[in-house]
Give the backbone structure.
Amino acid sequence: MNARGQLGDFLQARRSQLRPEDTGVATYGERRRVRGLRREELALLAGVSVSYYSRLEQGQAVNASPEVLDALARALRLDDAERRHLSELAAATRRRPAVRRPAPERVSPAVRQLVAALGDVPVVVLGRRADVLAWNTAGHALFAGHLDPEIPQRPNRHPNMARLVFLDAHTRDLYADWPTKARAVVATLRMASGQHPDDPLMAALVGELTVRSPEFAAMWADHRVKAGGDTIYQMRHPLVGAMDVTQQTLRTEDGQSVVVATTELGSASHAAMTLLVHGAVTTRAGVPQPLVRRE
């Protein structure tokens, strides 16, 4: 994944998803051979020359000004996250490619204090490649109770949330609407790849998932991006049944994601989550407690 190629691919993907009628481009009933807008139509909407825009898509132009990027963003109807992604991709084309292997990601003492302070609330800390850097007992029980809870502490053995979502049957079954969760994971990974276009470990992860999961390959080619936020998922936990869980993502100064899972107080989902967390905490303390599955 090189920065110029990512910039061109992103522009082309977004252009192909715009219909002429959505942008006021006249077609006069002609038969169109391309999906979405043509290059010359997008260039006209953005107020740039066709040749310059073509070079951008082909990875042959750098140093796009903020004014040009803003014009392209308006023409492509990008949202705030997509605008940031476009700017990061353009900025990356002006930097020299990194030659060093990236340093291992570590959780700062402040983030560890935050995880500890949240107590029985499920928390998972993810690195920029969706590696699980830390989780508390509740977070492990909710997201990956079938895995060894000590795995994140072992060097080079971090579970990866993207791999789990696409390649692990247990994790796939956790989500009633798995495609929505999968698209969110891909969109977050796509945003991170724009921020770190020369990361060889990111490229290796994307390559592995593209080969092993046709669903990932299709979603990755869509170039959707997502930056944090919160989403409610219906999770089907094998021990306590269905729960509506809000997953909120907080960003740290190191670019890591702290994912916090909550349920509505007083709801059946909250009761199920309480049961799950209580069972996990008492089991870790050496006092196994039976869990009753909710139907």
User: Anything to note?
Assistant: The chain has 14 helices and five strands. Residues 178-195 form the longest helix (18 residues). The radius of gyration is 22 Å.
